[in-house]
Design a protein that fits this description.
With 125 residues, the chain is mainly β. It has a single domain, classed as Virus Head Decoration Protein, Chain: A (Beta Barrel). Helices cover 8% and strands 32% of the residues. The strands form two sheets. The protein has a five-stranded mixed beta barrel. A hairpin with a 6-residue loop joins strand 2 and strand 3. The longest helix has 6 residues. The mean pLDDT is 87.
Length: 125
């Protein structure tokens, strides 16, 4: 993995309040992202529910696509996965403002996902 620096990028802050919150570093799977037509880059958007093993090292986290793969948290910031798996931050406890999440990503936060994350991540408007 390489460090990539971009200038003039505004970080999308999805938290309703920044304290209290707990996030952990994870590797985001490169197959999880969606291509951004404006830039041609593949981006996994902040607020995406992810599934993975929090106790295992070096395992990639993927979108929580169905009930057999429950969400363990939501992606805290956008992650560029154009060039392969990339580092990201997974929110495992906190309060998310649904108004700050991309509409396509907000559709991934279903009642099932909210139930899986109940007591960990709370979604507010």
């Amino acid at each position: 993995m390489a460090i990539k620096i971009e200038s003039a990028v505004n970080v999308n802050q999805i938290l309703f309040c920044t304290d209290p919150q707990v996030s952990v570093g994870v590797v985001v799977d490169s197959t999880a992202g969606t291509e951004d037509e404006a830039t041609g880059r593949t981006i996994e958007k902040a607020g995406t529910p992810l599934n993975g093993d929090l106790t295992a090292r070096n395992t990639a986290f993927v979108k929580a696509a169905d009930t057999t793969n429950p969400a363990v948290g939501v992606l805290l910031h956008d992650v560029d996965v154009t060039d392969g798996d990339a580092n990201g931050a997974l929110l495992i406890f906190g309060f998310v403002n649904l108004e700050r999440i991309d509409t396509t990503t907000a559709a991934l936060i279903t009642a099932t996902r909210k139930t899986e994350l109940a007591g960990k991540v709370t979604f507010l408007k």
